[in-house]
Each structure stands twice: as C-alpha cells, then as structure tokens.
Fold this sequence. Notes:
By secondary structure, this protein is an all-alpha fold. The chain has helices at about 15-25, 25-35, 40-60, 100-115, 120-130, 145-155, 165-180, 185-200, 205-220, 225-245, 250-265, 265-285, 290-305, 310-330, 335-365; strands at about 5, 10. The chain has three domains: about 1-35, no CATH class; about 40-175, no CATH class; about 185-285, Serine Threonine Protein Phosphatase 5, Tetratricopeptide repeat (Alpha Horseshoe), CATH 1.25.40.
Amino acid sequence: MGKKCGRCSTRYCGAACQVQHWKEGGHDKICKKIKKAGGAEQYNANNKYAEAVTVAAEACAEDTKGQTCYICTQALHWKTKEGLVRMCACRGTAGFAHVSCLAEQAKILVAEAEENNLLGTERGTASWSRWYRCSLCEQEYHGVVFCALGWACWKTYVGRSETDRPRQLAMNVLGSGLSLAGHDEDAVPVMEAQLSMQRRLGDSEYNILAAQSSLASAYNSLGRHEQSMRVRQDLYTKCLSLYGEEHAHTLGEANNLVSSLGTLKRYREARSILRKTMPVARRALGDDSKTTLGMRKMYAQILYGAEAATLEDLRNAVTTLDEIERIARRVYGGSHPLVTGIGKSLRDSRAVLAAREASAGLGALAL
C-alpha cells in the first residue's frame, strides 16, 4: 500500500521509502516548497523548467548579443531576468525571444482555443503548435530551446486530469523536447508513459503511431538500434496501409526506417527503399521538405559509405550533398541539426573522394 506525505501529498512506494526520503533525501527541507507549488509533479516541473531556460539562454548567448525580445521588446526578461533564445529558421534581427514570453504567448492562444472549443480543429492545432513552432518563420524550434518549451508546456498542464487533452499533448511536447536536447534517458520513460496512456484511453491510431515514432527515435539515440528498427518497420507498414505511399507520414516513416537500416549497415535494404520512395517524396513533398532532404542525405551516405563504391558513386554523393546542403541552409538556417548533419556528410564524402582519386592517380602512374 502506498504512502503519502500528510503535508505536501508526495506519494511513496511504502513507509520505508518515505522514512528514507525524510532522513536522506532532504524531504524535510523541501516539503513546504512542494506544497506551495501544488504537489511533487508540479514542483519538479517548475524546477526542471527553470534549469532548461538557463541552459537554452546560455546556448544562445552568442547569437542573441545586442538583441531584444520581439514579444516584450526587452533584452532581459523584466521578471525572471532570463536571456534571449532563437533556434528556428529566422534570420537577421527576427525571432529573438524569452522562453517565458514564448510560453505565455502559447498559453494565451491555447486558452482561447479551449474557451471556443477549437482544440482538434485546424485553428486549435495552429494555436497548440506555438508550444514548439516559431510564429514568425513557422519552423519548429530545435535542441535546448525546444526542451525548455517542453518543460514550460508540461508545467502549465501537469496539474490537470490524465484525460485532459492539453495535458496529454504536453507530455508529447516534453518527450520530444527532451529527445531533441539529447536527454534520451529522460525522454524514453516519458514517451513510454505517454504511449501506455494513449492506448489505455483509446486514442486515435494517428496519435498512437506518432507516439511510437518518437519513441523509436529515442531508442535509436540510446543505441537500441534493433529495437528501434523493428518499431520503424511496423510503423512504415501501417502507414502504407492507412495513408498510402504519397502521404507525408508514410514518407517520413520510410525515411526513419532507412536511417535505422543504415545505422545497422543494412545498406542493400535501405537503398532499395530509397530508390522507391525518393521520387515519391520529391513529387509529393517537394525538394525543400525535411523528409526529402533526409532521404537524399541518407542515399548519398550509402553511396560513399559502401565498400564497393565506385568513383562515380563517390562523385554523385558529393554532388548530391552539395546541392541539398544549399537547399537546407536556405530553408532552415545554418544552425539547424539537419543542415549541420548534411555539412558533416559533405565533408566526409569529399575526403573519401579525394583519397580515392589520389589512389587512382597513383595507380595510373604505376602503370
């Protein structure tokens, strides 16, 4: 039978656990703070949010020097004294903001959507996306900024019922944010809890598939590659059946599956899928979509990474990577993970090509 603190209602697995937390865990020092915050979950969310905001502001400090928040027009937040962030596709002096201001903007928009029963509609979805998408350039935030907004979102709705839709969505934003910031050890339990909750509450197939996809990415980041690949195979098959080959979700899962196969060095299978799906992605999504760029990046990596790669393969890989790097930089900005990833692959492919051409030249001289 579980126990809970009579003052702050923190739950324990048993009496021994509660005693240990009081004696060794410092509960006596934080009990009043937990009660004031509204409970252990809320207290933890508040603290994690504050830590994440500090990390995000420090990571963006160099980029945000001399700038002001486009929402409150101040350099330092008037209340929290936090610095500015910007991890989206905005250019020049656009897009700088405080995480607190971005969170307040999202809270207001979602509250309006709830009041007008718009959650679940296109307009309501657009309002909710302010928790993770820039309102100026419409690109998703990445890295530690997404993580800070994930904690902001979670601390806003954590006190609500498990069946409350914003609370469910907040769990998804938090899990994605943790993963994008490289905190996959923390992200996996959040994502697994979310998926379990969705299945228990009978959520839509669409939402369950999206949760599985995020979880597979986290598994892969933790080195659980076989487990990730099996989930990806299942997801791709289901998306093909539900949505057809040209749907964005199907193509996205095809790209994810190819990435998993590439990690496991199952290049023949990956190449076979890419040859079928790349033309579909370019036709259905366009050359500047993240999915199309990701597919072309993976195909180039397979070309220059294969042991039997020819000089023509290597030159095609370099040409492809050079082209998509320019496209990605124009669309997403130079700091986006996709752009930096393509840039690394381009450098690697050029090095492999240069070594092969030098070797071919030496061979020709020897003859």
